[in-house]
Each structure stands twice: as structure tokens, then as C-alpha cells.
Amino acid sequence: MTTAVDDFVAKGFIAVRGAVGPQIVRECVALIENELRARGVEPRDPLTWTKPVVRFACPEGPAFAAAGTSPALYEVYDQLLGPDRWIRRQGVGGQIPVRFPSTADPGDAGWHFDGSYDVGGQWWVNVQSRGRALLALFLFTDVGEGDAPTEILVGSHLDVPRLIAPFGERGVFHGDVGLQPSTFRRPSVRATGRAGDVYVCHPFLVHRATWPHLGTGPRMLAQPAIDHHHPFALRDDMPVCAVERAILQGLRQ
Length: 253
Ligand SMILES: O=C(O)CCC(=O)C(=O)O
Known about the structure:
The protein is α+β, with helices and mostly antiparallel strands. The chain has a single domain (about 5-250), classed as Sandwich (Jelly Rolls), CATH 2.60.120. The chain is built from 7 helices and 13 strands. Strands 1, 2, 3, 6, 10, 12 and 13 form a 7-stranded antiparallel β-sheet that branches. The protein has a 3-stranded antiparallel β-sheet with strand order 4-5-8, with no helix packed on it. The protein starts with a helix and ends with a helix. 2-oxoglutaric acid binds near residues 97, 114 and 223.
């Protein structure tokens, strides 16, 4: 029988529906709206939506702490990583790209996997995934097909380990890793859902923002790393968690 964990290893993500409750979502949205106002964007006035995307660091505070410490997410992190391996953060973290209805190219919608540690102002990655045990996509608004959902290449996390392993522990700037044509032949899905859903993803999953945004309101998403105490050891002779299992599978394929 295929378990949810096996499915994650094969596909590279799991959608946790209703991970964040509606009241917490509302409080987070109010804080995101304040950030927009501070940047001259009025969340309810389309005349002020002059750019297709506005980005900022995810705010901190009790509402985001409640979102980031959702029991449903903790259970999934435990299942995918093991209870003692990941760092419990009193918040969400990462960046929030808010996407507005627009047919303009936002300029940031290329396929990529995320870097996880800073080397001289660039985001680097290594096969042990230093600094990132998981990528999470927190939907703070309802996201339908027309609302510029994030697009995910299913199973693409299995293609990345072989590309970055040759760079050893030092790693490589994530933007310098040339993805192979076979990765782009993988099926894609769009991270649609309701406000409060969270897509928990393998750190090497290839994804991109999409455009145009044909919806009616701002799309709000946070995309933090879930960090770990130690990078993955990737040793076959030790117990491995699901994220590591996928990296080892990718190295063998
Ligand atoms: O906004 C999105 O849908 C995803 C953006 C993204 O992948 C990124 O900024 O790294």
C-alpha cells in the first residue's frame, strides 16, 4: 500500500488542506495588507495595483507564530523529517510575493529550485540541503487556476541531487545549476487551494511563479524554508527520513 510519505518521496510535495485555521489566516492577511499599505499599495483599490508582484519578508508576531506552529504541519514535518531533526520556529518566515491581477510579465517567473544558504549575497545549495529541510508554500488567500498559482514539476526533486552532488559540501549557486530537458517533460501541477492550505515540498522541488494573474484580488503566499539542526547525512547505513530517502533515490537514478 502506498502511504502519504511514499507519495511525497515520489512526487516531492504534499498538500495539507486547512493547515492554518480561518481566524489565524484573517489576522495574517491583515498584517500582509499593512505591509502593502506601507509600500503605497491599497489592498482593496485596484488603481494602486501598479506592479504585478510586490515582495517583502514575512512579518513576525503572534498570528504568524500561530500559522507556523500549526499542529497539522508539525505532524507532517515529523513524518517527513523525524521529530528531532527540524527547527521549530515561532513564525512562518521566508518571503511573501503578493501577485496582483495583471497580464504583465512579473519578471520573476522562471523555473527554479530554491537556494538555502547565503554565500556572499547569493543563495547556494548543496546535496545535503544545508539550511533547508523542506520548502513550504502557505496560501493566505484562496488560489484558483486563474490567480497566478505556483506551478510545480511533479517528481523534479529527484532530478536535482545528481546535478548538485558534484559540487560537494561547498555547494553551488542555485541559479548556476542547469536543469535537464527531461525535468521539463515531467507533469506539472498548480498549487491551488483555499486560504490556510499549505503545500509542504521537498527542498529540491522545481517550481515557478505563473502569469498572467486573471483573478480579481491579490494572491498572498509565503514560501519559507523549514530548517534543520544538521544537513542530511545521506548515509545508506543509517536510518534516513523521507526527504533524505528521495535525495538518495535521486542520486541512484
Ligand atoms: O509566487 C510564486 O508563486 C512562487 C515564487 C517563487 O517561487 C519564488 O519567489 O522563489
